[in-house]
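Pasting as-is:
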Amino acid sequence: MRLTLNLENDLYATAKSLARELNCSVSAAVHELLRRALKPAKTSPPKATGRSNGLPVVRGRRAFTSEDVYRIESEAV
């Protein structure tokens, strides 16, 4: 698909520099930059903030209740 874009000078310079580095066209470099920008960010797992009964404690949004556990167990069957 063809598309005309108006890029600011610094963005064009970045795309042109990447194109030279990758030995490809500016168009292919812009494709690569867009793919990188749209790729989901890698998130690291939450870090343990302490220990309880020898097990790591990770702070989340809310604590699980007994009702949550019973509901999940019944759905798993």
